[in-house]
């Protein structure tokens, strides 16, 4: 790659520059926060209307969020995001906690089969935030849009780039439609944070730019989510050794404690089991949820009642992909002055809960690069690309590897070749067991899941490798004590669902 920086006057300082951000989701807000902190004037363009709600909790019931349909699915916010807020934006973290977000210490609820877990320096970083996605977004939105150099243009849809021709073209603004009128907004730089539906490849093609490299793979699952609220006087149940999340191949579940006495349950079904589509029915959802011992205690009607949109009591979402789009190739940036962040660039299986943390990390990478290189947008693009390859892509690759393995298991394919067989054995009988009983491997896993270390960093540490290997070699009989509680009988559960009256 040609890494030559372009000559002055590009390297003017960035403060005072005018940035347009496409999309007021988590990444757009993270970008507005990070750029406005560095002295840029930021205008965020969002096609969805503003939330007309007075409290974060109301946002869950009333905020129309067509542009980010996932907001009413379970979310958890990883340690990487919580620590970034703690270290850079403590007032924002305080506002989230005041709105009901909970700091959940992961090492407080290890698997019951864990032995010898004692506190270590760094454990204070292993804290996730638990709240509804609407709560998180509503609070961050209020906080960011209150900044003096951030403006929101609501009801504005971006339809293309304004560019000056060249190789590569230079982005000079955005074409937008608002109330049926089209106009051009000029900008010194543009951030695309428009999420999974990003049109950046099309916009670049219209500007005559080279196409981005793209890799897409299905995650292989469908998400089914239902929200609940604890009844007056009821308490959250203890897990008592039942994991808060587990993967039984035909069904995966996770319990998400949230704000304002709410929680949600997500059941994720492999595409290899099309009969699981029945989970979109609330009565079938309850049958399966009640058959999973850990979940049953939460959804017990004596403890909690379902909440949410009565027309869609169970939110279902398919089309969940892993996708990488790179806006820098071997010749450099595809367009000068355009930075594509968050889901628009890297989209991963939501099961791993990385998207929002990744959006914040990506936005910080951009802001730090702008601070370093000023208006030399070629150098900025190369810097952000290098940072994303270092800090984000390892997690994208981990998602792909985990999803391929889950699909292989769901389809009952045996691994091909000696290397794949040994790797599978090591992960299933070594790492997979050790995370339930060995504190060293468990802590490494939790650090990786929270994006505090890349999978390579966490699992290439010799003592982690050796402990996982030792667990594998001590044999299945000894390891049986660390196994997950057994799953419910799939055929019986499905038969109960099939016996439900037709709708
Ligand atoms: C089912 C599901 C569950 C998930 N669970 C988790 C989780 O537990 N934890 C986690 O961290 N992440 C999770 N994610 C991922 C997370 O939701 C995304 O990574 C995150 O929302 C990405 O933020 P974003 O700002 O990049 O995109 P989005 O949140 O999708 O926001 C994009 C915004 O751009 C706007 N927009 C789009 N096009 C235009 C346009 N042309 N003009 C103007 N505005 C436009 C949209 O209206 C939207 O507001 C989950 C995702 C899914 C699908």
* Number of contiguous helices: 17
Regions with pLDDT < 50 over 5+ consecutive residues?
A: 1-10
The top level CATH class name of the domain at 18-75 and 132-216 and 322-396:
Alpha Beta
Strand content: 15-25%
Coarse structural class: alpha+beta
- The end-to-end span amounts to 59 Å
Mean pLDDT: 94
Largest sheet features: 6 strands, antiparallel
Kindly describe this structure.
There is one protein chain. With 503 residues, the chain is α+β, with helices and mostly antiparallel strands. Among the domains are: 18-75 and 132-216 and 322-396, FAD/NAD(P)-binding domain; 221-319, D-Amino Acid Oxidase, Chain A, domain 2, CATH 3.30.9.100. It has helices spanning 26-37, 56-62, 79-88, 90-98, 133-145, 200-206, 282-291, 293-299, 355-373, 377-391, 393-410, 417-437, 439-449, 455-459, 462-473, 476-479, 490-498, and strands at 18-22, 41-46, 102-105, 127-130, 150-154, 156-164, 170-178, 181-186, 189-192, 213-218, 221-230, 245-247, 251-257, 262-270, 304-307, 315-317, 321-326, 328-329, 332-333, 338-340, 346-347. The strands form six sheets. Strands 11, 12, 13, 14, 15 and 16 form a six-stranded antiparallel β-sheet that branches. A five-stranded parallel β-sheet has the order 5-2-1-9-20, with helices on one face. Strand 13 (251-257) and strand 14 form a beta hairpin. The radius of gyration is 23 Å and the shape is globular. The model is unreliable at 1-10 (pLDDT under 50). The structure holds flavin-adenine dinucleotide. Flavin-adenine dinucleotide binds at residues 22-28, 45-48, 67-68, 70, 73, 75-77, 157-158, 193-197, 223, 317, 320, 342-344, 350, 353-357, 359.
């Amino acid at each position: 790659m040609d890494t030559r920086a372009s000559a002055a006057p590009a390297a003017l300082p960035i403060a005072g520059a005018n940035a347009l951000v496409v999309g007021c989701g988590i990444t757009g807000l993270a970008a507005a926060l990070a750029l406005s902190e560095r002295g840029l004037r930021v205008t965020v363009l969002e096609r969805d209307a503003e939330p007309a709600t007075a409290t974060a909790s109301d946002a869950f019931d009333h905020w129309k969020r067509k542009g980010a349909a996932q907001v009413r699915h379970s979310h958890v916010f990883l340690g990487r995001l919580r620590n970034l807020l703690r270290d850079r934006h403590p007032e924002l973290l305080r506002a989230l906690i005041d709105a009901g977000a909970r700091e959940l210490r992961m090492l407080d609820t290890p698997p019951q089969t864990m032995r010898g877990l004692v506190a270590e320096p760094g454990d204070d970083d292993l804290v996730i935030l638990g709240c509804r996605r609407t709560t998180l977004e509503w609070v961050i939105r209020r906080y960011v849009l209150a900044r003096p150099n951030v403006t929101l243009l609501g009801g504005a849809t971006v339809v293309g780039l304004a560019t000056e021709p060249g190789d590569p073209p230079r982005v000079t603004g955005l074409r937008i439609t608002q109330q049926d009128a089209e106009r051009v907004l000029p900008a010194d730089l543009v951030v695309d944070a428009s999420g999974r539906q990003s049109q950046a490849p099309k916009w670049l093609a219209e500007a005559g730019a080279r196409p981005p490299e793209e890799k897409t793979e299905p995650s292989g699952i469908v998400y089914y989510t239902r929200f609940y609220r604890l009844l007056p006087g009821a308490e959250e149940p203890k897990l008592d050794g039942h994991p808060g999340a587990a993967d039984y191949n035909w069904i995966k579940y996770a319990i998400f404690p949230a704000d304002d006495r709410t929680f949600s349950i997500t059941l994720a079904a492999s595409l290899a089991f099309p009969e699981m589509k029945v989970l979109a029915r609330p009565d079938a959802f309850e049958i399966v949820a009640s058959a999973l011992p850990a979940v049953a205690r939460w959804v017990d009607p004596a403890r909690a009642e379902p909440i949410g949109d009565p027309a869609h009591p169970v939110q279902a979402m398919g089309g969940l992909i892993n996708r990488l789009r790179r806006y820098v190739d071997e010749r450099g940036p595809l367009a000068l002055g355009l930075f594509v962040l968050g889901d628009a660039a890297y989209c991963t299986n939501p099961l791993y809960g990385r998207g929002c943390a990744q959006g914040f990390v990506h936005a910080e990478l951009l802001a730090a690069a702008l601070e370093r290189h000023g208006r030399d947008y070629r150098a900025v693009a190369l810097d952000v690309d290098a940072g994303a390859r270092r800090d984000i892509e390892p997690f994208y690759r981990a998602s792909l590897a985990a999803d391929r393995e889950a699909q292989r298991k769901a389809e009952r394919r045996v691994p091909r070749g000696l290397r794949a067989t040994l790797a599978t054995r090591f992960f299933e009988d070594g790492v997979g067991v050790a995370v339930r009983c060995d504190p060293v491997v468990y802590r490494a896993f939790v650090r990786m899941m929270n994006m505090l270390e890349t999978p390579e960093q966490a699992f290439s540490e010799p003592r982690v490798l050796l402990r996982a290997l030792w667990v594998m070699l001590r044999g299945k009989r000894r390891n049986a004590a660390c196994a997950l509680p057994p799953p419910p009988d799939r055929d019986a559960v499905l038969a109960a669902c099939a016996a439900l009256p037709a709708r």
